[in-house]
From TrEMBL:
Transmembrane regions: none
GO cellular component assignments: plasma membrane
Keyword Cell membrane among record annotations: yes
Segments forming domain ABC transporter: 9-255
Record-level Gene Ontology MF annotations: ATP binding; ATP hydrolysis activity
Localization: Cell membrane
Membrane topology: Peripheral membrane protein
Species this protein is from: Desulfamplus magnetovallimortis
UniProt keyword ATP-binding present: yes
Name the record gives this protein: ABC-type transporter, ATP-binding protein (ATPase)
Keywords recorded for this protein, A-Z: ATP-binding, Cell membrane, Membrane, Nucleotide-binding, Transport
PROSITE patterns found in the cross-reference section: ABC_TRANSPORTER_1, ABC_TRANSPORTER_2
Pfam families xref list: ABC_tran
PANTHER family in the record: NITRATE ABC TRANSPORTER ATP-BINDING PROTEIN, TAURINE IMPORT ATP-BINDING PROTEIN-RELATED
């Protein structure tokens, strides 16, 4: 079990303003403070434009904050470029094509993950590694172990996203960022990938933040739920309180705090 007292991510008074001092200046993150403990699985929900993806971009170093500090595992990475944090952060996007190389085989895609962080060029796969990859991919229960020499382009969106998830988990990241990673899949495949997500996070005790537009998923998964609105964290619910939460109550809470109705058809209809 992870030591829950270790703080994996600390966001200290983070602000982000796009196009400062121009007519299109826009503050999209407003004084956000967030401590994420080792092993936390936080679901992140919010209306369109609330700042969820921007928050992930800030954590991964894809963009820099206008002010504030970001600490990963206690280290101040506020000014560290994305490529330097990359080996510690696993991020999965909505697009199932984004996480794997289409014109390479399943085996070679897995090899890249295996070699992540190493500087020497790819060496040819030996039998031991091939068997190791087969064992790992068997966990997906999609019979992909029989297709190791096929190009990834021949896989369905669901299979490809499951492979991306497995590869990301195998790279053993300190932090897993799931950015609506099942939103582009049909309901059946989305459910399969969500169950695999739950299994891997539980087994590996991965510290995870998951953006979703699906309120039921936000409530059902993880030990903590954060709701963003207008660049701020307005709701932060944990453990037992989260276990008792309902979609109706969450929408009521939004209304009580913001004195307006929650507007996001994608979320409400999910
Ligand atoms: N590079 C940028 N330049 C200017 N504005 C930006 C930029 N990136 C994001 N924004 C704006 O910041 C706000 C927050 O966007 P963000 O993508 O973080 O929202 P989100 O909560 O992920 O929304 P959605 O649920 O619709 O994906 C939006 O108003 C968006 O238009």
């Amino acid at each position: 079990m992870p030591d829950k007292n270790i703080v994996m991510i600390q966001l200290k008074n983070i602000n982000k303003t796009f196009n400062p001092e121009t007519p299109s200046e826009k503050q999209v993150i407003k004084d956000i403070c967030l401590d994420v403990k080792k092993g936390d699985f936080i679901t992140v929900i919010g209306s369109n434009g609330a700042g969820k993806s921007t928050l992930f971009n800030l954590i991964s170093g894809n963009i820099m904050p206008s002010s504030g500090k970001i600490l990963l595992g206690g280290e101040d990475v506020t000014k560290q470029p994305e490529y330097k944090r990359a080996s510690r952060i696993g991020r999965i996007f909505q697009d199932p094509l984004a996480g794997t190389a289409s014109n390479m085989t399943i085996e070679d895609n897995m090899m890249i993950t295996f070699k992540k962080g190493f500087k020497w060029p790819l060496i040819s796969l030996n039998r031991k590694m091939k068997n190791l990859f087969k064992e790992e991919i068997r966990q997906l229960d999609m019979e992909l172990e029989k297709r190791m020499q096929e190009n990834v382009s021949s896989l369905s969106g669901g299979q490809r996203q499951a492979l991306t998830l497995l590869m990301t988990v195998l790279s053993n990241p300190d932090i897993l960022l799931l950015d609506e990673h099942t939103a582009a899949l049909d309901p059946r495949n989305a459910a399969i990938v969500m169950e695999l997500t739950r299994k891997f996070i539980q087994e590996k005790h991965l510290t995870t933040l998951m953006v979703t537009h699906n309120m039921t998923h936000a409530i059902e998964f993880g030990n903590r739920l954060v709701m963003m609105d207008g660049g701020e964290i307005i709701i932060d619910i944990r453990e037992e309180e989260k276990a008792k939460l309902t979609v109706k109550r969450l929408i009521e809470m939004f209304g009580e705090i913001r004195k307006k109705e929650f507007e996001n058809d994608e979320v409400l209809l999910a």
